[in-house]
Amino acid sequence: MLLGDTCTRGCRFCAVKTSNKPPPPDALEPLKTAIAIASWGVDYVVLTSVDRDDIPDGGSGHFAETVRALKELKPAILVECLTSDFRGDLEAVASLANSGLDVYAHNIETVRSMQRIVRDPRAGYDQSLGVLKQAKACKKGMVTKSSIMLGLGETDEEIKQTMADLRAIDVDILTLGQYLQPTERHLRVREYVTPEKFDFWKEYGESLGFVYVASGPLSFTQEELVLRPPELRAMLILQSFALVSFMIAYT
Ligand code: SF4
Known about the structure:
It is a single chain. The chain has ten helices and eight strands. The chain is of the alpha/beta class. The strands form two sheets. It has a six-stranded parallel beta sheet, with helices on both faces. Helix 3 links the parallel strand 4 and strand 5. Helix 1 runs parallel beside helix 2, helix 2 packs parallel to helix 3 and helix 3 runs parallel beside helix 5. The protein is globular. The C terminus is likely disordered. The structure holds iron/sulfur cluster.
């Protein structure tokens, strides 16, 4: 997790510390992070951060510096960046997308009708779609990824529409997971989605053309992909050769 532990936003599902003026980021963090990760012996890593609306580029440059340092130390490592929306700043998105990362992830979090209830007012459905669309457009073969939390009161039709909107901008990977209320001050869980329903959403999502759908009560985090590095690595290699149809059949 880059850029500190304090977010400038206050989403109603997230228990991270918040402040309008978090401490400035550590200028040496990109290098220190790269050195640490390179020493772990992992072949896939997810870099993420809090939102930093107090920094002119939203922290995009800091992220990009970390990716470049890591790729220099360990060129074979696959790097996923799970980013903020950078307030919709598409140049900030492009600068990070062109830093050498392998997977650009940004979470739309919930369906359109629930955005204002669930997310900080500075976030938004169309802004998030814009980020993912820009990331995809920046680099040939860029893999994009997003997530939707379930159990907040959304309807099936709204989930289908959100999936369709993500596919319409060529998002490749989707994760669906159960929302869990972190403290009493946060949004209540409206529904615990059954494992069968999660299976249904996986099948439904893959029928829409997502290359991979991780759908399950715990799959909002990265664990399923972390457990599947060979598949994901194969997917990335195949995508670079534009063998998308083969990839869809075997992932
Ligand atoms: S922007 Fe991200 S880190 Fe910040 S409060 Fe919202 S979900 Fe949490």
